[in-house]
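COMPLEX REQUEST
Ligand: pyridoxine-5'-phosphate
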Amino acid sequence: MAASLPHLRLGVNIDHVATIRNARGGGHPDPVRAARLAAAAGADGITAHLREDRRHISDHDISRLAREIDLPLNLEMAATDEMLTIALAHRPHACCLVPEKREEKTTEGGLDVAVGHRTLAPFIRSLVDAGIRVSLFVDPEDVQLAVAKALGAQVVELHTGAYCEAEGDLREMELDRLRRAAEAADRLGLECHAGHGLTFETVKPVAAIATVVELNIGHFLVGEAIFTGLEASIRQMRRLMDEARAQAAA
Ligand code: PXP
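STATUS: Structure written out below.
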């Protein structure tokens, strides 16, 4: 029997608890309460994306998450001066740099670090110097991984959106791209995470990739919580991840 794989961490993204809250204003449902519940349900970390337009998570949410939640906080953000100031003020465990467009519904693709390397370099240095782990959200492409490494990021998060949206043979091809990128990241000495669009149906093949050590999942978990409750939806995701890991090691 093969040796067991490294623990696969689950980062629960609570953005869309805030989306529902913001639909009416006021404080309910509270994303910090969701983060506490996620911790109790087996999450290893909390992920929150502070968008430039503050459409879901607010500055106050980030302050409260940093202060009140014991789990590592992964702050997703665009590489802007405003976000750098906020990150340096709160010093989260990690910052995941993502591309951001106001008109998009969600983060549609990875950050093109190959094109943006000149502006990203000092930005990443400031975060690393402050003791914050830097993760770059990239498409599963060799050039993106090589540039991420050259820029001094410790982590890459592979965008799983194309894999989740594809069907049949195309999905297999996208999965293969993720596998090859995760192996390449490992060879470069980059910690490899993955996320975007993952569901109960799509999570297991990604969870089975040995060199992926963290998945960040949000929208599906919050949507499923409408039917089964947040704790049950997180526990089921955790169970599927553990099953995939155990099967891959067998
Ligand atoms: N990882 C990153 C870097 C993201 O930007 C997002 C979406 O905010 C996620 C993971 C989670 O994606 P989803 O909400 O589709 O599970």
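REMARKS: Residues 58 and 106 are 16 Å apart (CA to CA). The chain has one domain: 9-249.
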